[in-house]
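Consortium newsletter contribution from the modelling node. Members have asked for a concrete example of what our holo predictions look like. Here is one, prepared for the alpha-D-glucopyranuronic acid complex that several groups have been discussing at recent meetings.
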Amino acid sequence: MNLPDPLDGGRIGTASEWMNIRRPELLELFRRTMFGTLPPRPDSLVFEELERSRNALNHRAERRQLRIHCSMRSGGTHSFDLLLYLPGNADGPVPVFLGLNGLGNQACTREKEILVTPWKINLGGLYPTHVADESARGIREDFWCVKRILERGWGFATLHSSSIFPDWPGGISESVLRLFRLRAPRPGAISAWAWGLSRALDCLESIPEVNAGRVGLVGHSRLGKTALWAGANDPRFAFVISNNSGCCGASLARHKQGEDLESILTYFSFWFTEKLHDYRNREESLPVDQHELIALMAPRPVYITSATKDLHADPEGEFLAALHAVPAYRLFGCRDFPPETMPPPDAPYGTDVAYHIRTGPHDMTPLDWEFFLDFADRI
Ligand code: GCU
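And here is the predicted structure:
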């Protein structure tokens, strides 16, 4: 496998060359070939508190629901809801995990007060229709482990991906992208979702009980691809955890296992910018590969994960991408990396670049969260 060199054959040798020359070049290449350019901040952003309770989750937490209103001078508007939990016993601003959810805010805990984010998503027969309605309440409790996150002294914030860009091929007309005049490289859904994460951070920055300098991203699968892209675009995110993100996320296109560009573009072309079609079955001619997307987090800690049964996401390709991002981190004097060969299951390695492969299928589980919390506490 012949991978492009993040340091461009020795042309880049210092942290400042990385930040000022190479990082902007790579970011631009990912914009042009894969994800498109994120829209700017809207002309106006207003954060409206819809609900607050100090007695959430059996009196152990504070819950807030905020509506983020975006508006443009031209008259366009778009709003979406952020759900925030803070530990009840905090004695200062708390660090927060921020993640996009795929089934509605109401899926993340069982609390009946959580407002339903009412999107209906039909991916045209490939997957069953997702209905982000009342029936989804609490169904992702074990996936997000909110109680455990709070117990460990962290806050948790989430928003529904489809409230930014409904996750189906026609979703653009109801997406936030309709507020902006889009020029090439046009953003796909992943750029729109990444934009939503940055607006969520704008909102978190306005909350004194949040330590906005320690807001890290966590995302699974398509939203793990998004977490990497959001972290690449917005250096305010303190760390990024990309769980089982696979093709166009953490796994190397040139490794050629699991999902490839031909297959992802057949079903999910609307996630990407049009130019990516030029590389269908021509992965070797991409000007970048995914280790360079991971390297765009440097020197901020990044955590890549796989699962033993998630062959669609290509665990080995994910591991190798993490490993090949290391040269960018070394420029900053970082030293805590995974070993050079694939580690055994259920054993996390590294802090600057971290990796684990969990036993089991494509998912995010309480065991993953124990590892994420240990990682985040070390930062
Ligand atoms: C599909 C898709 C993947 C994606 C996954 C998910 O399987 O092929 O690229 O990561 O959905 O988001 O669950």
